[in-house]
């Protein structure tokens, strides 16, 4: 008789699948990661995995969403603790974003062209639109928070979103650049980010 999972069981299994998935994706990449191995580590049947995730790409995207929320919370907390002129604080905020993008194992996986293409094939257009809306909302809230503290004036969040989209694209394709080209490009985007964000600072 199949085991009945309670809501608490389901929450625990899902969190374990996310944790095991991150470990396996980090070690083996998207194509090398095997659902069977994740199930073995968690101690569930393969059929149980598919009750939570339609395919391994769905697991990857769920982990990416979890890490995205974590990174956003950490960067906001970092900025809140910074002191000094708002231009310096904005620059340090940008530097932290670069560090997180370059060190996150899932970003490294998405940098592999075939893996990125596989993810895009499994991501419906409405999910893409949702991710864009979610990022824009985060930027809007970030800018509104600065404005409420009197640190900046009105800022178009679409401008900030465009710069950060370029940053993500740059990091995903950094293997196409020399170290000096990559550094110079990051520096230029940093300058644009700080200028756009703080141009209306008091």
Automatic annotation (TrEMBL):
<feature type="domain" description="HTH tetR-type">
    <location>
        <begin position="11"/>
        <end position="71"/>
    </location>
</feature>
<dbReference type="Pfam" id="PF00440">
    <property type="entry name" value="TetR_N"/>
</dbReference>
<protein>
    <submittedName>
        <fullName>TetR/AcrR family transcriptional regulator</fullName>
    </submittedName>
</protein>
<dbReference type="InterPro" id="IPR050109">
    <property type="entry name" value="HTH-type_TetR-like_transc_reg"/>
</dbReference>
<keyword id="KW-0804">Transcription</keyword>
<keyword id="KW-0238">DNA-binding</keyword>
<keyword id="KW-0805">Transcription regulation</keyword>
<dbReference type="InterPro" id="IPR001647">
    <property type="entry name" value="HTH_TetR"/>
</dbReference>
<feature type="DNA-binding region" description="H-T-H motif">
    <location>
        <begin position="34"/>
        <end position="53"/>
    </location>
</feature>
<dbReference type="InterPro" id="IPR009057">
    <property type="entry name" value="Homeodomain-like_sf"/>
</dbReference>
């Amino acid at each position: 008789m199949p085991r009945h999972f309670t809501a608490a069981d389901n929450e625990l299994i899902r969190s374990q699948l996310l944790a095991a998935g991150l470990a396996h994706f980090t070690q083996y990449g998207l194509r090398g990661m095997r659902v069977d191995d994740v199930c073995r580590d968690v101690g569930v049947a393969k059929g149980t995995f598919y009750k939570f995730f339609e395919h391994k790409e769905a697991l990857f995207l769920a982990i990416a969403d979890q890490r995205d929320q974590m990174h956003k919370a950490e960067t906001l907390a970092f900025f809140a603790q910074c002191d000094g002129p708002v231009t310096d604080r904005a620059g340090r905020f940008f530097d932290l974003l670069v560090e997180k993008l370059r060190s996150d194992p899932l970003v490294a996986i998405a940098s592999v062209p075939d893996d990125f293409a596989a993810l895009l094939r499994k991501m419906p257009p409405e999910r893409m639109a949702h991710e864009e809306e979610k990022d824009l909302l985060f930027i809007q809230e970030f800018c509104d928070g600065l404005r409420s503290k009197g640190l900046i004036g009105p800022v178009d969040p679409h401008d900030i979103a465009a710069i950060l989209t370029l940053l993500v694209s740059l990091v995903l394709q950094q293997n196409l650049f020399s170290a000096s080209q990559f550094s110079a490009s990051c520096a230029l985007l940093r300058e644009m980010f700080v200028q756009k964000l703080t141009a209306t600072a008091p």
